[in-house]
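Exam revision sheet. Question 4 asks you to relate a sequence to its structure. Input first:
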Amino acid sequence: MTEAEELLDRIRRAPPPPRPPIDTRHGSGDDGAMEARISALEGANIDTRDRLARIETRLDSVATREDLHKEITAQTWRLVTFVCSFGTALVAATFFIAKHVS
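Answer key, C-alpha cells:
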C-alpha cells in the first residue's frame, strides 16, 4: 500500500469531528455566530457570482455540437465538389489530348 493510499485509508476510518448543536437557544437556530456565517455566505456568493459570469463568458465563444456538425458537413460538400470538378476536368483534358494531339 502506498503512502497516499494509507493516508486516504486513515482519513476514511477517522471518526467525524463533533458538531456543535444547531439549536442552542430553544428553537432559534442561532448559536451566537449567525452574523459571521451569513457574512461568510454573502462573501462566497459574490465570489461564486463572479466566477459564474467568467464561465458563462467563456462558454459564449465555445462551439456547440450543432456548430461543429454544420462545419463538418459544409467542409465535406466542398471536398466532394472539388473532387468531382477536378475529375471532370481530368476527363475533359484526356479527351482533348486524345482527340486533337494524335
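Marking note for examiners. The chain has a mean pLDDT of 83.
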